[in-house]
Amino acid sequence: MKERDFKGLLPRIQNKLEEYGKNYYPSLETLISEYFLQAGNNWRLSTDELNFYFVLGMNLVDEVSKTLGLTKEKEEV
Q1: Is residue 76 part of a domain?
Q2: Is there a domain that residue 56 lies in?
Q3: What is the pTM of this model?
């Protein structure tokens, strides 16, 4: 993935969550948006580095959610 891929993910993910009525993470979306603004343009990371950090974030999602106090509603079965 490249910088533009990362920047394109946020609106697509938000849109899909809204479509399914499962958008439980508005505070996380705000935090991600703030980080993107701080990061600016022309990131100086290789594609391998970007992919590494993306996968790292995926692996840490549960721990980060707990730390930030983010929880999702349980679905009724």
Answers
A1: no
A2: yes
A3: 0.66
